[in-house]
Fold these 2 entries.
Entry 1:
Amino acid sequence: MRIPLVCLGLALLVPQANAQALPELGDTSGALLSPYLERKIGEQAMQEIRQRDQRFLDDPELTEYVNEIGRRIVAASPEARQDFDFFLVRDNTINAFAMPGGFVGVHTGLLLAAQTESELAGVLAHEVAHVTQHHIARLLGKQEQMSIPMLAAVVLGLLAARSNPDVAQAVIAGAGATSIQSQLNYTRDFEREADRIGFQFLQQAGFDVGGMGSFFERMQKSTRLYENNAPAYLRTHPLTSERIADMQNRAQTAAYKQAPDSIEFSLARAKLRAEQGLPREAVAHFGELVREHRYADEAGARYGLASARARAREFSAAASEVETVRKLVGPHPMVELLAARIRLGAGDAAGAREVLRAALGRAPNYRPLHYAYVEALQELGQHQAALAWLAELVKSYPRDARLYGMQAKSYAASGKRLLHHQALAENYVLQGTLPAAIEQLQLAQKSGDGDFYQLSAVEARLRDLRVLQAEEAKRR
């Protein structure tokens, strides 16, 4: 039975326990799991989230935005010696969480609650610090004898259980990880360590260092309104006045650096808000903001209104609103994507393709534009053009599972069965499902339409995956 992923966060259970001493700041000698094992645990947990948690938000633009903020923080961190992946969970609670191996989840409620981009960055910096200091790995301790799937289940269970002690005990007992119980009282020390190191990351990345303290202080004050139903972030990241005072003192002694919000911060929040509730409710919300000039950023409010009108299938009005946004911010990639979606919704796939082609000329490295352009080509039935475009993209982004899925779609539409199964196999490999990938390659062998070279490539890849599967079975 899968434990539901509720109230995620990185504070490690039982916040009322007495704290034990941790190694000195920056000392990760307590991380007893190897970097390889940490990454594999994280990948296994992410596989579960992607496949079984309906709240996983697969939105290219919003994912690109949180990853851009995350990349800035990681790039400024001398201790981040691993890949990081930031992803979104559709959940209105204000929360974020980190898993072993560099996977950081962000609740949509956090993105909407942050009043500045630096506040959002402050939370992400805190989570990045949890990863660089190997906090969950140190929690798991000497559980290396457990299989990777079981360790991943423990991680997911611990994340879910922090708001429910009964679930916590079930996870510990069910996994046979009773030694974890003695380490659960690291909570407050882990949080203080993540505060200190996260503050350094935030400062080095060029954000307003006051953002971390201001967000946490506002969360603490909000507890008076919630009584026994505090925001998830407070349940999973126990706050103390000492921690908040320490953050504020650090901000006061640091050199002040103005960090204005990016236009992407405003557009991402507006896009998210426009997709909530019924379309007519979203239109009414943004329409009122625009009429009464109740917005911090006009472009964001009008972008939200255009998005809401597109949802309501008011395509003419949505297109008109996009033109106003263009006048305010210019041909921004997110704005051009919305313009293309509006054209697609109105049945003008050719027009959408041209909007996207022009946008790619200005922003060739913005991957969501590439996804949308390929989708427009596929909508028009131009699968050979789509495959040619994808062939170049795969060279640039060989670990992007979405690209292989798009390849598989166009190969299927073109009647190329071997290549269809081959592309699906790579998609499954990148999602961590080796058995499904091997099955697809076996189907490719039997497709009957491959030439000698294609079949040889399939057989070689199949051998590689079987070796990889055997190696992983040994490690488990």
Entry 2:
Amino acid sequence: MPRMQIEDMERLEELPLFPLATVLFPGAILPLHIFEERYKAMMKFAVENGALFGLSYHSDAEADRETLPDVGSVGCVAKINAVMPLEEGRLNMITTGVVRYRVVELKQLTPFLIAKVETFSDDMEMETDLTSLVDEVTQAAKKFFAAAESLSEMDAPTDVSFPEEAEELSLFVAAHLPIDNDARQMLLEMTSTKARLIRVKSHLIDRLPEYSRRVETRNRAKGNGHGRMN
């Protein structure tokens, strides 16, 4: 996210929070289906107050279960881009991650959760220390995403335009890695761009051989079919 936009978001002090068993990254798109009464009310409030809410990862969050984020926990501000009303007040929504936050204080619990938050970005680091890492992660991610797209992986981004800024790149790639939510949350919480790039690069290097083998096996199977041209 551009630095100016992050500075603008520093004025954001309170947010309705949506605990969910998923991790949202800045820049990532997340469709949501809202059906619980408290979250219908929360989204109505959000739409009427800047179209923003906070998504806080909670591993055991589920319908009809009260799950409160811990003070100090990290989440991602989500912007509501589109709302499709459904029967019985249910909603389909398209949201986009904006910027990360820490929960400072739980201000309201009913009828829905509102918390005092503080937004943040990564710590400042020397660009010269990141240049080679950015190039390495970009090249590895291009290969990985191409393999994932070839295999029709659901989370594989298409028509990828890689961010040039190191922090944005690290978060963008992290958002599309096929890793579990606890690992994704760890990447979200990091405040060192360099450390995140190193971790993301490690995930890519670990996964790329498997994906490459799967592509090779798929192509070999296609070549052995009856439609093979000699």
